[in-house]
């Protein structure tokens, strides 16, 4: 809970600090509607305060209509009717006025106060850019291909995470995964915005595979051995190729690839295997780079869902 930080030397009571910070985290979307906040004891232990202090803060936010206490489930964020513009401006003006009085009381002049307001605004903008974005799936090589495409669309770093390690990323803000894993991911990281996406193979590659005859041999080279079964299954499923598929990974080295390549009529290779594979290739056999492509409508939906 690094987003909460209490200043014990401040004249502002700890419970008030906690209320204000929790109110901000809810308003900024860190905690979303129906999210369950940490238990009073758990949060109290993290912050080094009594659970009574946390309960007092939660109860205050409940009275404001931000939280809802449910027996056996703790405190959850609830949707409330927002203040109208005049009420927001009136309460906002009061907060700004109180802050200005405190700043002037410290001896700051107009230029210094203006600088501080601008600096804090920039920090808020920076914090919004530092949201943690991850892409989750069972196969690292396939994850990396999808994460690279989504990173390019968002112009933000999207980390590729094995689904088996998802429990280490409960602090993620946005999680991208294929729809077959959506339910599992949503249950594992309920605080995050989970967005599903669809993938497909390049049509140009599928056309070449579909034109192979049944006695032809299709070769597949990947970076990791674990990638071979899902990729070969996808190729067969989407091209209806019924011939022989042989596969190898550069994870095991490249010494065996010379004889392997000679056996193929069409060779497919993934981008991560390209650098080590290409020096071994001459003009034959025909070869194509095989990518897992995130569908355009999925990319559009992701771009719309994730704030710029």
Can you tell me about this structure?
The model has no long low-confidence stretch (mean pLDDT 87). The protein contains twelve helices and twelve strands. The longest helix has 21 residues, at 85-105. It has 308 residues and is an alpha/beta fold.
Question: How many strands?
Answer: 12
Tell me the structural class.
alpha/beta
- Uncertain runs with pLDDT below 50, 5 residues or more? none
End-to-end separation in angstroms reads: 25 Å
Helix-strand pattern: HHHEEHHEHEEHEEHEHEHEHEEH
Oligomer: single chain
List keywords for this structure.
alpha/beta, 12 strands, 4-stranded parallel β-sheet
Give the SSE layout.
Layout: H1 14-27, H2 40-47, H3 51-63, E1 67-70, E2 74-77, H4 85-105, H5 110-129, E3 133-137, H6 140-154, E4 159-162, E5 174-178, H7 182-188, E6 193-197, E7 199-200, H8 203-210, E8 217-222, H9 228-239, E9 244-249, H10 257-262, E10 266-270, H11 274-277, E11 287-290, E12 293-294, H12 296-305
Parallel strand pairs: 3-4, 3-5, 5-6, 8-9, 8-10, 10-11
Antiparallel strand pairs: 1-2, 7-12
Helix pairs in contact: 1-3, 2-3
């Amino acid at each position: 809970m690094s987003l909460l930080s209490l200043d014990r030397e401040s004249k502002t009571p700890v419970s008030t600090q906690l209320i204000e910070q929790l109110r901000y985290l809810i308003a900024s979307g860190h905690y979303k509607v129906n999210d369950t906040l940490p238990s009073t004891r758990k949060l109290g232990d993290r912050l080094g305060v009594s659970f009574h202090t946390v309960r007092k803060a939660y109860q205050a936010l409940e009275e404001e209509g931000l939280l809802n206490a449910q027996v056996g489930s703790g405190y959850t964020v609830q949707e409330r009717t927002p203040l109208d513009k005049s009420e927001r401006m009136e309460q906002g003006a009061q907060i700004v006025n109180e802050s200005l009085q405190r700043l002037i009381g410290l001896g700051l002049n107009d230029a210094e106060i203006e600088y501080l307001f601008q600096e804090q605004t920039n920090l808020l903008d920076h914090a919004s850019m530092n949201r943690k974005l991850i892409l989750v799936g069972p196969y690292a090589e396939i994850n990396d291909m999808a994460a690279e495409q989504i990173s390019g669309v968002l112009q933000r770093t999207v980390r590729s995470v094995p689904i088996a390690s998802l429990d280490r990323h409960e602090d993620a803000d946005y999680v991208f995964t294929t729809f077959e894993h959506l339910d599992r991911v949503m249950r594992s990281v309920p605080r995050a915005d989970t967005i599903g996406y669809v993938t497909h193979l390049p049509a140009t590659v599928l056309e070449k595979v579909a034109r192979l005859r049944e006695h032809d041999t299709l070769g597949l080279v990947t970076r990791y051995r674990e990638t071979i079964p899902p990729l070969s299954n996808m190729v067969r499923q989407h091209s209806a190729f019924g011939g022989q598929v042989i596969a190898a990974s550069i994870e095991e080295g490249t010494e065996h690839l010379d004889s392997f390549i000679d056996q193929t009529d069409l060779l497919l290779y993934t981008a991560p295997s390209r650098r080590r594979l290409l020096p071994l290739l001459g003009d034959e056999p025909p070869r194509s780079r095989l990518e897992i492509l995130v569908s355009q409508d999925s990319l559009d939906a992701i771009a719309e869902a994730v704030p710029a």
